[in-house]
Amino acid sequence: MCRSIKTLRPPAIPEEATEEEMRAAALQYVRKVSGFRAPAAHNQEVFDRAVAEIAESTQRLLDGLEIRGAARV
Question: Which terminus of the chain has a lower count of CB atoms within 10 Å, N or C?
Answer without folding.
Answer: C
